[in-house]
Each structure stands twice: as C-alpha cells, then as structure tokens.
Amino acid sequence: xxxxxxxxxxxxxxxxxxxxxxxxxxxxxxxxxxxxxxxxxxxxxxxxxxxxxxxxxxxxxxxxxxxxxxxxxxxxxxxxxxxxxxxxxxxxxxxxxxxxxxxxxxxxxxxxxxxxxxxxxxxxxxxxxxxxxxxxxxxxxxxxxxxxxxxxxxxxxxxxxxxxxxxxxxxxxxxxxxxxxxxxxxxxxxxxxxxxxxxxxxxxxxxxxxxxxxxxxxxxxxxxxxxxxxxxxxxxxxxxxxxxxxxxxxxxxxxxxxxxxxxxxxxxxxxxxxxxxxxxxxxxxxxxxxxxxxxxxxxxxxxxxxxxxxxxxxxxxxxxxxxxxxxxxxxxxxxxxxxxxxxxxxxxxxxxxxxxxxxxxxxxxxxxxxxxxxxxxxxxxxxxxxxxxxxxxxxxxxxxxxxxxxxxxxxxxxxxxxx
Length: 419
Hints:
This protein is of the alpha/beta class. It has 2 domains: 4-232, Rossmann fold, CATH 3.40.50.10840; 241-418, Molybdenum Cofactor Biosythetic Enzyme, Chain A, CATH 3.40.980.20. 42% of the residues lie in helices and 21% in strands. Helix 3 (59-73) runs parallel beside helix 4, helix 11 (272-295) runs parallel beside helix 13 and helix 13 (326-348) crosses helix 14. The protein starts with a strand and ends with a helix. The mean pLDDT is 93.
C-alpha cells in the first residue's frame, strides 16, 4: 500500500474493532498503545492503529494527546482516520480539533453511523436501535454522560470548530450530484462536514467521495465507515517477501538469476569481501538500502551472496591475506548474514521468508531467538514450509538446501509465500 493509514482511537476495544476492518482484507494492521515513535511503527504496518486511552481523560489532556500524535504525523505520507465511539462517548470534539491542529489540516469529514450495530445518523441526530441516543442507556454512562442526540450539539460542547450538516438525502443523489453538492459545501468556512448514514450504502457513498478529494483531510468515523474504505479506495497490501540466499552453490546462483529475469524484485549483493573488509560499515549500508527500498514500496527482496564462482574465490583469497582460514571466513560471513536477516525480518515483518543454504538458515533462526521450526507442508520436493518456534515472528518460513530445486525454485517459492 503506497500511502499508509493511521487510525487514532480512544480505547482498546474500539482500536481492535476498527483495525479488523482493514486486516480482514489482507492489510498488515498493528494496534499499539505507545505513540511515542510512530515513524518506526509505520515501517511495519499498512494500517497503524494508535490507542490513546483518552476516552476518560480531561478534555485538555485528550486534546494534547491527539495534538502530539498529529505533530508526529505531520509531513508523513499517511491518511489519518479518527475513530469515534458510535454513541459519542468521550472527548470526540477535543480530539478532532487536536488532530487537525497537530496535522495542520483545515477540514474533517465525519460519518458516525454504524448500521450493522443499529446505530444510524438521521438529520444530524444519532439513533440507536430506533431510539434517540439521549434516551438510551449510553446517555446515562456515569463517566461520559450524553446530553443530546444531536451530533453538532455534542461536539460544540468540546470544540469551537465550525460545522455543517450535509443534506439528509445526499447519499441518494447521483454520483455527479453528490460530488457537486460536496464540493460546494467543502468550499464553505465550516471545518467539519457531518454526513448522515442509515445504511451501508450511505457509508459506501461517503467512502467513495472521500477518495476523490485532492487535499488532505481528517476522516472521522466508526468501524462502519472503516469497513468500506479498503474496497472504495482499492487498498491492497504489499506482501513483502525476503529471500536470503546464503548458499554459494551453482544451483542457487542459477535459481536467483532466473528469478531476476522472470520477476520484479530488488536484489542486494551480500559481498563476502566487503564483510571481511568492513563488516560494520557494510552492514549499515545494506540496512540503509533496504530501508530506501521499503519506503519506495518494493515488496520482493533477494539477498544473495555471489553471482559467480570467481567471487567465492575472491573471498577466500582475502581471508588468506587477513589471516583467516576458509572455515573461519565462512563462519564470519554466515553470522553476519544471520544478523542482517534477523534485523530485517524483525523490523519489516515480511509475510514470507525464504532461507536457502543450511548455514544461512540456522544462523538466521538463532539470531531471531528461535528454537526451531514447526513444519506445515512441502512446497516443492525437499523444500518445506513452516513457522518458527520460540520467537515472535509471524511470517511463513521456507528452507532449502543450496543444491535443491530446479531453476524455477526461487520463483515458485516467492509465489507460494505471496499467495
């Protein structure tokens, strides 16, 4: 997914019920409760849900939490979705304002309906299973009582942002008519545009309209609107796959070369001579190159040690010059690859990991803190897949002895991991 989505919520269950609307479509969705390093968290997510636990805070504290998150995200290539409670408990107005100020945004679109759970918004008022919000048990919440069913009135208790209620029949208009009405209202001074919603179709219309907006805006809604964003926006996850080809066998070289011809992938040459010459500096360089490729949205990564037998010979020649035996040099390089593999896997959380070469495989597993692998199936003859045990790595792992497989093996394993 080229542009990432950040959901800002005020409680944990709301974070999860909104996050699942994205994860069920295959988007890598993480919920966090510590917002202090959002840039790093974004590297591992298509959708990042930030639980601020601010529902029961004082308004000023809730505002500040959202403002701080907004400031962190200001300038990041993200779309921000403010998740609200469908019965309007909490500091919704203050949090909307805090996010808008922190992000430097001038407009917000609010669609609070959750028809699947009996929450509708009709002419700017919230109804719960056919009853006005103010007449329900939610209005009597001892910590966050509600005094009105009118969305504007609820928000105006918490913010001075200007608001406008979209016409109640907006979603029933033709697509061109909806756009014309929407763009007219968007040009007015109001900062928050409030949409009614009685059905899923109404929310789909809002989701599709938001997609057409050129300027950055804050989106405000429940899990109901979130449910329709992936399809309306054609959000797709980049299923990241890492191939660590540490084997120096001729068969592995041919398989990697064939994959480069047949597929779009990003290759990193893991040069043994560079590792022996300056292992720390080369490690830093490769990590930087990987970060750049991930930022660019690349999804297939191949880390390969050699392109020819001559490169292997050059490694052993250098080893001899610096007083290392061939075994010592090979061990040093394998440990380096294992550490690189582990750090890349931990940081970028690929859906699939392909380890070819026994030394590469075991060094990677140990660097990750793994105790073994739980075998699931045989992808190709002699090439199994499974999950690591003893460590918190979710991706499917495939291992292959260096000399195993025909020339299509790497391609076919990548396709398996992406499926």
